[in-house]
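input
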Amino acid sequence: MSQSEGARLFREAWVEGARRHFPGEPKAGYVTPWDDTPQWEREAAGAVYEQVRQLVETSDAKTDRLSREQKSRFVATCWTAQMFKHFDDPKPGYVADWPDLPLWQRETDADIFETIEKSVR
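output
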């Protein structure tokens, strides 16, 4: 899968997770379709997809032994690094540490990891 296809997979998993886990109706920005997603966000999604893909491959797909929390933390950390790359002064919510993220976002990040993990296998 190309990095641009991986970015789209990441975004689709994010939207699906936001719809599943967000309490109530997710904000419009959380469920923006791919074609309307800003370029910086597409690039960040592609980079995080690639980092998860590499982790799965270099562990000989043993990432299935990671807990959902570990998977979620990995995605969140990779995303935070992308926010620092794309913004000089990112919003605090963009770079919040994993324990400070809302439960719905932590669950969505775990879903993203598992979606990418399945696509690599």
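quick obs: The radius of gyration is 13 Å.
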